[in-house]
Amino acid sequence: MRATRFFTLVFQLCLLVVTAAMGQAQHYFFGNPMIRNYKPEEFKGGIQSWGIVQDDRELLYIANNFGLLEFDGATWNLYSPKTGTKVRSVHVGADNRIYVGSQADFGYFLPNAQGTLRYVSLADSLPEKFRNFDEVWRIYAQEGSIYFFTFKNIYVYTPGRKLEVIVPASALEFSFQVNKEIYSLVWSKGLSLLENNSLKLLPGGEFFRDKQIASVLPFDKNRLIVFTIKEGAYLYDGHGVTPFPIDQKLATSGLLINQALLLRDGNFALATQNKGLLLLDTKGRLLLNITLQEGLLDNTVHTIYQDTQDNLWLGMNNGLSMVELSSPFSRLDGTMGLSGTGYAALQKGNLLYLGTNSGLFVSDVSSLSKNFTGVPNSTGQVYHLNQLGNHILMGHHNGPYLVGEGMATLISPEFGAWEFVLVPNQPNKVIMGTYKGISLLSATEKALHYLKKYQGLEESSRVLEFDKDGDLWIAHGYKGLFRVRFDQKGENITWVKFYNSRHGLPSDQLVNMEKIRNELIFPALYGVYRFDKAKDRFVQDQQYSALFLPDEHVIEMEEDVQGTIYFISNQRVGKITFDSFGKPTLQDQLFQNLREQLNDDLSFIQVLDINNVLFGAKEGFIHYNAAKTKKMVPFHTRLAKVFTISNEADSLLLSGRRLGKASNTELPFALNSLRFAYAASFYEKPEKTQFQYFLKNFDTRWSEWTTKTEKEYTNLPEGTYVFQVRARNIYGVLSEAESFAFVVRPPFYRSTGAYFVYTLLGLLLLGATFWQAEKRFRNEKRRILLDKERKLGQKELEIKHITNQSEQEIDRLRNEKFQAELDHKNRELTYSTIHLINKNELLSCVKLELQEILKNGGSVAPQEELKKIIRSIDHNITSDVDWKQFELHFNHVHGDFIHRLQDRFPNLTPQEIKLSTYLRLNLTTKDIAQLLNISVRGVEISRYRLRKRLCLDRSENLTDFMLKF
């Protein structure tokens, strides 16, 4: 704070008393509430809107000239029942159908398979005689049925039943629903109640038979309040009617009421034809009047609706407006006649002075209009306002001014007055900070006078404060701090000391100074410091520094009478409160919307009283009502639409309720590029709402915060994904994340079936490979076997050849052996034959000798003996035993010659066979004769006979025949 605490505390205590006396009526809004206007060009609808409702998802639905408007906080959608049809009424049913009434038609909207709303007409099912009706102005739900009200008939729709028609006895005016009861004005009869599908005139209801009713609302337990269009308001207690007092200025101003609404705080909001928006309390006092001048699009309000966050939506004659009734912030700007950026403020009684770069403005806050007017002679940059007793001092670019009697008077021509501060213990002296140092002023009850400029300090002195020791501290934003000491009279500077980063401060620049709890503190580039007089250095104040971020620079601080400290830093705006034990708590959530609206040249805070604080803004001032608490109502983030992206055009996949109910949506691989559109159901500065998204199984973390309401993902690989999005509003409140699970199926060539086919083909290919390998193996094996067989054949041939050679050799050897054996046998036979021949020769000789003996004579006995010998020799000579033995060996040697010869020539005699064997042995005739025991002549004869037996030609040699046989 930069003025003396004494005058400020006195002023604030007086202001508290004045505030209490002024009452609620004058302080519902100190300035004008925040208003957000939507022109038809923005929502692409008609200029007029006639009904506004919200569904369970907090989406707004508006009955508009062009159709049904839907707003989710980010995107406007327009749905038309029929081409060119104006929608006059809208109602959200318990079944989530959006019922609408229009010209000669009524029905409802339902989401199709993609979630886009599609209209279903109910009037089309009416018999022809009931189709001729005008516009449906009201829709209400009661006991499971939907009632559509026209000025001619009432149509009752009950799902699953046939449409019913109630035909009143007289024409109807508007209808109303209060506490689940439906009232309607029957023209020329009065206010009636709908019971059992019949309208019954209420007791005393005939009072309204010729009065147009705008709205019927509950007033208390036993009474209703009836607002008429032209004739004011009345209270109805079930029996009679009494007038309800409305502010006399309104009652006599030609007020036309289109609709009234009971607000959640118990006050009444009036949508008027010619006065904009009015707020009345329960006593009929005017709390607020907002018109075109205060920021509405025009002065005609057709319909009014309070949303779940207590914002007031107005259906204007030319657009839509949203009034932030629940906000503790209001604006004092050009809509109240104020021009320029806010720099200074001061309240004196009912007069509020505001200084901007355009000059000084004043308003009587007790008046209804609260408009500001410029103070004469104050044009230009205002820096500071201060009240000293009855005097108001103004620091101005042109110098110091005294404000009073409706104008500003220049005190001194000294150029550039920053600020004023009282000299301690000398209430008649004021020190003024200027562009080029400090000056001294004198104050009396009637006037202020410029005394002198102090010598010894030529620095710009924008921030001034005295410490407890009476030293004046001056903060220079780009150099550091100056400590100034005066003489006892305060007329001259005795010494000046300069402090900067060499004295404990973190830097030379951006050092500020505040007087909090009657002590000086010094917010620096980062951290908050105190001056340690014993060390003549600055030390960090741990309590305050701990409240701020390490790199946070506190620009401005201001304290109220309860010790609450309001602050502005380079990162945020907020306040610091202290509990009963002195523990501080920093609160900035509620103020997060302010930072970008505030004056960033010379930040300014002014505490008017315990409940009213002003912040200098880029356009005028922002007012904070500390007594008006802002409920941080939870809001929701919702996925509005999901599109599939293609080269031709994006295609809507899902939207609305269908999207909200979708789970594990399966997408073909061709639709693996998606665009997600989302919104948040928070309508205070929705363009500042930030979003954060995360695609599970694709993103590694949540995204950075962004104000974009769409996110695209292209060429997602196959897999299971969950897209999540959440929002953060202007107050830093986070919503719960909204999720959409979907599955991108693999392309046909990577599908399960494809993998099955691939597996099958793989198995077939593997089988074919194995078969081919097996075949190749078999062929190779066959080739190897054939090769082996060939080689074996060759080997066998070689072996056979060798074997043949061996066999030949063996045969040769065998033959040689056989021949040797044969020769041996032949030799044996020959030897045997020779032996036989020799034996026979011997025996023949013996025989001859014995015959000779016998012939020559001898005794008889010897003769007998000799005869026996001869007989024995004959027997030996003719014995066949030797022949048998000989035949056996001969057949063995000569290939069974005798048997073959006998087989071929069975007529041969034994003598001829023997002859043949001997011829085979190639014996001589003599030898044969001896063996046959015949003469040589006998052998020749025997050969001759044998030839004949053998039928041999004369040319053939018998011996050769036998050798070859």
UniProtKB/TrEMBL annotation:
Gene3D superfamilies: Immunoglobulins (2.60.40.10), Winged helix-like DNA-binding domain superfamily/Winged helix DNA-binding domain (1.10.10.10), YVTN repeat-like/Quinoprotein amine dehydrogenase (2.130.10.10). Residues 683-744 form the Two component regulator three Y domain. The chain crosses the membrane at residues 755-773. Keywords: Membrane, Signal, Transmembrane, Transmembrane helix. One of its GO terms (molecular function) is DNA binding. One of its GO terms (biological process) is regulation of DNA-templated transcription. It holds the Pfam family Reg_prop. InterPro entries: Ig-like_fold, Reg_prop, Sig_transdc_resp-reg_C-effctor, WD40/YVTN_repeat-like_dom_sf, WH-like_DNA-bd_sf, Y_Y_Y. Residues 1-23 form the signal peptide. This is Triple tyrosine motif-containing protein. It comes from Rufibacter glacialis. The lineage of its organism: Bacteria, Pseudomonadati, Bacteroidota, Cytophagia, Cytophagales.
